[in-house]
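lol ok so funny story. i was supposed to be doing the assay writeup but got distracted and ended up predicting the structure for this chain instead. priorities right. anyway since i did it might as well share w the group, maybe its usefull for someone
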Amino acid sequence: MSDVKEFFDEHGFYHARGLFQPDEVAALERDFDGIVRQLTASGEVVDATWDGGETDKIAAKGDVILHTHNVQKYSRTWLNAFLNPRFLDVAEAILGEDIILHHSKLFQKPSENGSPFPMHQDWPYFPTLQDSMIAGIIHVSEATDQMGCLRVYPGSHKLGRIEGANGRQQNDVLDQYPIADATPVECAPGDVVFFHYFTLHGSMPNRADKTRKTVLCQLYDGRDAVEPGCPHPDERMVLRGWNHTISRTAAGQAA
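and the output, tada:
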């Protein structure tokens, strides 16, 4: 796994192809679709399309993206995915032996009108003290560029924290990295793309006749911790190894 770490450290992302087997993907897609049905029937607001001028530049009227946090609270099959040894082996190569689940989130980009996400970094939403946070996007469907797959700027994680890089507003640094010039990371079902939360990334709209289905999970090193006062849900679930920074108080807090 040294090649994984070497590639990730240089480029800020790693594309793990075929990490989940076809039978595993079928089970994950079954439960993915079940979650979507439950969300749709709930009457809650489930469209996670971002507001702001940056989204308006690349979106069309009527674009939507279905979303929920923490699929492991809906489905044991999805918890099993996060505990899958092949998934955790790649995460360990990047993070080390202690792997904490911060949260997961489901994104369904409908065919033809799936919302985009402007170029951004993830750190403004859940900064950690040691900046160890990474994401792993599990694909349960195909994700082509026309379907609005992930786009990245390889090596951009070396820029560190860019103030105001949350994707919802104009930013002088982000202007130097237009989404149109970013590298598409096209995926097959079962692929997982890991990337650092400094890596500039985004996605274009889904204009294809197929639905894009992904679940993203945020992971951090068990010796790291989310900065105090961060309001984002933090599950603090140990997927492998040990949580070295947890306390009695933190362990008892509701996520």
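Helices lie at 2-11, 22-42, 53-58, 76-82, 85-95, 248-251. The longest helix spans residues 22-42.
back to the writeup now i swear
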